[in-house]
Specification:
binds pyridoxal-5'-phosphate; five-stranded parallel beta sheet; 22 helices; alpha/beta
């Protein structure tokens, strides 16, 4: 096997790493993130070829040039198992719905946990175990996740039953929606564990980071042939599968007769850690005719400010919102964009990251700003505006939006008014509205007199829109994980589970 695709670190100290080593390693040893040496251009006729395939076939075509140390049969098996009709309730896995005129929604929530994290986390554990085999790593993995809601459940489903793997998820006890909580506490599988933390998401995240940095604990694990790993979106194995749905959506628009081949399409993405929208940027680098990538923020609009001014400033107030998966002040995947904006200069990226760590702020240069405004647009939206968008969209079209997707649709409308850019646009829809029944009912003007799984029934009644099967089934689920620990108790919980 001739390998021609290698990876390097955004901080410039590590290079020539294979795809398998990048995925097995997660973070590069210099603290940077792995990026491929090049973005292979889609061959002529790719859109027609891909359009004739199922989603799993599209995934193999897009991913294999990046992973030429995996053989095609292997990738086909993984993609088929990941995106099969049993796991996804739509034959297309990631269908595009036309709402009106040039407004399209790319529904990324037809997987087992009803959020877009499934698109990557259904295949990433398979890539990771294969990557470990290729690199000769025979250890067992203990995956630790701190979650604000969606990642935890998607990681539990993705890693459940994976050999030589255990997964433990910490969520903020009072910081996730009722449905998200039930999804996690009823999780099935023998290698899984879920614990509530008495604190907010940042506390849980800090606790997990502290465990990763605990050398004594890591040595004890190592002596038992185990190591800690994370499932967050800095791993290349999570980013790569996300490029697929941009290409898939474009093919569906062409084959549905909505656009002509080569016509530019804008994508509007509700953004938190910058993983989703970065995958769109990579798809564009591969030659997909994407016009603007519109970055949508909620009230925590640090990215909007960055795109508008070139200043990234995390020294600002944090606001909990009804779109909690976007309540982020440090978007870790932005480092990969910075790398491209600084013409792949690892020294420049290191300098930005050092300044960010020291002062909480950095400013990019003029050339980077020009590149940003050529490729990106942005906007932010308050909770009140997102609620109004949910209500309006439902009233006019009978289509229910979750609060994250509502932020994006609101930002798209205002982008169009401001710029006059009427190009067809795809709103990337990141969660089923049923994951956030409380907020959606509230937006529709209903004060629910229900709680827990009964909220699902209440929203079905109000909207007439059926709930996805995995969420409808929660009312019959058995709660298996009811433990909650103070911050100081997290390490012991991990020791008990992994020991
Ligand atoms: C994770 C998530 C986001 C943010 O995605 P990033 O890749 O972190 O930018 C947006 N919406 C929902 C529903 C999510 O779960």
């Amino acid at each position: 096997m001739v390998i021609s695709m290698f990876y390097q670190s955004t901080r410039g100290q590590i290079a020539d790493v294979t795809g398998a080593a990048a995925i097995a390693g997660g973070l590069a040893r210099d603290g940077g993130l792995f990026v491929p040496d090049a973005f292979p251009l889609l061959p002529p006729g790719a859109v027609e070829t891909l359009a004739s395939m199922r989603y799993d076939g599209r995934a193999v075509r897009i991913m294999s040039p990046f992973l030429d140390d995996f053989d095609a049969g292997e990738l086909s098996d993984f993609a088929r198992a990941a995106y099969c009709p049993g796991g996804f309730d739509d034959a297309g896995a990631a269908p595009v719905r036309r709402l009106t005129g040039g407004d399209f929604f790319l529904e990324l929530w037809h997987g087992p946990t009803c959020a877009f994290k499934d698109m990557a986390l259904q295949i990433m554990p398979r890539l990771m175990t294969a990557a470990m085999q290729k690199t000769g790593d025979t250890r067992g993995v203990c995956v630790l996740v701190a979650t604000s809601g969606d990642t935890g459940k998607a990681a539990l489903e993705g890693f459940r039953g994976v050999p030589r793997t255990k997964i433990m998820v910490f969520y903020p006890r009072d910081g996730v929606s009722s449905v998200q909580k039930l999804q996690m506490t009823t999780q099935e599988g023998d290698n899984v564990n879920v614990v509530a933390v008495e604190g907010n998401f940042d506390d849980a995240q800090t606790g997990v980071k502290r465990i990763f940095a605990d050398d004594g604990f890591c040595e004890r694990l190592a002596s038992r042939g185990l190591f800690l790993s994370s499932a967050n979106s800095i791993n290349w194995g999570r980013l790569l599968p996300q490029i697929v749905y941009y290409a898939s959506a474009y093919c569906d628009l062409v084959s549905g007769g909505h656009i002509s081949r080569g016509e530019r399409v804008n994508f509007c993405v509700p953004t938190g850690n910058f993983g989703n929208i970065l995958a769109g940027y990579y798809a564009k680098k591969m030659g997909l005719p994407i016009g603007k990538l519109i970055c949508a923020s909620n009230r925590n609009d640090v990215l909007t400010q960055f795109i508008n001014t070139g200043v990234y400033d995390r020294n600002r107030e944090f606001f909990p919102t009804i779109s909690p998966s976007m309540d982020i002040l440090v978007s870790s995947n932005l480092e990969r964009l910075l790398y491209e904006l600084s013409d792949r200069d690892g020294t420049a990226v290191s300098a930005y990251m050092d300044t960010l760590a020291r002062d909480g702020v950095y400013t990019v240069g003029e050339r980077a700003r020009e590149l940003i405004s050529a490729g990106f647009a942005c906007g932010s939206c308050s909770d009140g505006e997102a609620r109004r968008t949910i209500a309006d969209t439902f009233e006019r079209y009978g289509y229910l939006l979750d609060p994250h997707t509502a932020v994006a649709y609101n930002v798209l409308a205002r982008y169009r008014e401001r710029t006059g850019d009427a190009a067809p646009a795809v709103v990337v829809s990141t969660a089923s509205p049923y994951k956030f029944c409380d907020s959606v009912l509230d937006a529709l003007g209903r004060v629910p007199d229900a709680a827990g799984a009964d909220l699902v029934g209440a929203l079905v009644e109000v909207s007439g829109v059926p709930a996805p099967e995995p969420i409808a089934a929660l009312k019959d689920g058995r709660e298996r994980f009811t433990r909650s620990v103070p911050l100081g108790g997290m390490l012991r919980a991990v020791e008990e589970f992994c020991g």
